[in-house]
Fold this sequence. Notes:
Helix content: under 10%
Number of strands: 7
Structural class: mainly beta
Largest sheet: 5 strands, antiparallel
Shape: elongated
CATH superfamily: Immunoglobulins
CATH class: Mainly Beta
Amino acid sequence: MSHLVTLSWVPPASGADGYNVYRGPAGGALVKTNADLIVVDPPTTNPVLYGDVVPVAGSYVYDVTAVKDGIESPHSNQAPADIPAIAPDAPTSLQVVNIA
């Protein structure tokens, strides 16, 4: 079962052409989650919201960078996301169909 993690960050005062979001296991290496630059149009000084779909439960950390004129900023602070494992529903309608 996939999970949607919604992130929020405040854009830099210097502005940005877009953002890169990085995710990794807690204590592990972070990998960029977006194939293309995340563009906010029109640019804003309000907090930016971004949704990331995580396919597997676990403990993750996120960070974000701003990109302006092709130059990527240092990484932001890290934000943890603990995604619990969810048990499937129990089977139903069990019955004995034959006794030999």
